Amino acid sequence: MARALAGHALSRNAEGDLASAGPSVDALWPEYSDAALAVLKTLREPSGRMLAVGDAEVWDRMIHAAIEDETISEA
Description:
The protein is built from five helices and no strands. The chain has helices at 2-10, 22-28, 33-42, 48-53, 56-74. The chain starts with a helix and ends with a helix.
């Protein structure tokens, strides 16, 4: 998630101005870890529509695993 946020901020394909953002994303993605965790924590509670079409327990396990992955990548 942090890499995606860094790419979005840096790449010309999104809000940035770098034509080739890969090396910058590789170097700077840890700076986006707090924002990534905030997004993932927001996703912990699925909307009513999401619950209507999917399994809430599976969603919960997936989001918690993603939060754990993001936390591990900070270390």
